[in-house]
Amino acid sequence: MPEPTDSHNRSGLVCVGLNYKTTPVEVRERLAFPEAQVPDAVQQVRGLPGFEECVVLSTCNRVELYATHGLPSGRDGHAALRDYLVRRFELQPEHAEALVLYNLDSAEAARHLFRVVSGLDSMVLGETEIFGQVKAAYKLALDTGTTARSLNKLFQQAFTVGKKVRNETTIQRGSTSVGSVAVDLAEKVHDLKECRVMLVGAGEMSRTCAQSLLSRGAKSIIVSNRSYDKAVELATEMKGRAMKFDEWEHALHEVDVIISSTSAPHFVIKPEQIEQVMRKRRWEPLLIIDIAVPRDVDPAVNEIEGVYLYDIDALQAIADEGRRERERQLASCERIIEEQLEKYGFTRPGGTVAMA
């Protein structure tokens, strides 16, 4: 196999990131990129001295920057991206100092991306949603013009690997999404056939929850969303009822479970709202599952009598219960990834990486 040329070596691949394993949700939400701001972010990174290409991946469980640069070393690239995050999110010195990031380059960065796309680095092992989330992040960068030959090839190869893992192993069997794990939790607390559920938000995560609820026979589903048309669309599809966003509080006394997943940058469910509702409910128990990042539900809600609040990090224990069978597939998945890294020329003697 020929050695990579000098031109390949000049474009260093780096990844800087944080995820649910390194960083709690109260910190992750500070560094989450709203989808509307991602085009601006990838252009800002590409505009940093020495940087050439960039993709930003921001989900409820991770924030990762993938980039290529011509700086003297990967360490320089990592430092520049860390400094960018500190500036972008205006982190105070004490928060910047406490920020825990993983810094990967060359083959390690490629390997990490392959594992992410395959669902091997997810809170829910074998998660299926992450494949679509990475595709969306890549497409957004592609449309913005911040990818070229190197990252285009890297991400296309990652999608090939993800499909291969999905098709050749059973890693994705069972509950393999945050949404389905949220429904697992609801099912532990309530008989879903007698359960009335409100979904706050009508995005992909809410759709996953609704599909899972429907398949398990939930008694009724209410969907509330800022865009009422989207709420109607999802509710119709799931044989539920749509509600305007400024009216959802009026139906809270009817429901047993709230699952919230909006893209709001601030709390949308607050203690004073729930306090009022609980009085009307005569303190009948209410389960609230917040799977948004930034969080939708003020943590103080959990202090109200009869309310049981779980955020996305609290779902970890439930997700772990379903891991055992899928963990048996890990060795097969890792072998596929290593074979593909070698096939695509990402691993070479001395650890250098060919990006062409």
Automatic annotation (TrEMBL):
Protein's GO biological process: protoporphyrinogen IX biosynthetic process from glutamate
Enzyme Commission code(s) on record: 1.2.1.70
InterPro entries (UniProt xref): 4pyrrol_synth_GluRdtase, 4pyrrol_synth_GluRdtase_N, GluRdtase_N_sf, NAD(P)-bd_dom_sf, Shikm_DH/Glu-tRNA_Rdtase
UniProt keywords, alphabetically: NADP, Oxidoreductase, Porphyrin biosynthesis
Binding-site residues, substrate: T59, C60, N61, R62, S122, E127, T128, E129, Q133
Pathway the protein acts in: Porphyrin-containing compound metabolism; protoporphyrin-IX biosynthesis; 5-aminolevulinate from L-glutamyl-tRNA(Glu): step 1/2
Catalyzed reactions per annotation: (S)-4-amino-5-oxopentanoate + tRNA(Glu) + NADP(+) = L-glutamyl-tRNA(Glu) + NADPH + H(+)
Record site: Important for activity: H112
One GO MF term attached to the UniProt entry: NADP binding
Residue span, Glutamyl-tRNA reductase N-terminal domain: 16-169
Binding site for NADP(+): G201, A202, G203, E204, M205, S206
Keyword ATP-binding: no
Active-site residue list: C60 (nucleophile)
Other noteworthy facts: During catalysis, the active site Cys acts as a nucleophile attacking the alpha-carbonyl group of tRNA-bound glutamate with the formation of a thioester intermediate between enzyme and glutamate, and the concomitant release of tRNA(Glu). The thioester intermediate is finally reduced by direct hydride transfer from NADPH, to form the product GSA.
UniProt record similarity statement: Belongs to the glutamyl-tRNA reductase family.
Subunit structure, interactors included: Homodimer.
HAMAP family per the UniProt record, alphabetical: Glu_tRNA_reductase
Role this protein plays: Catalyzes the NADPH-dependent reduction of glutamyl-tRNA(Glu) to glutamate 1-semialdehyde (GSA).
Protein name: Glutamyl-tRNA reductase
Name of the gene this protein is made from: hemA
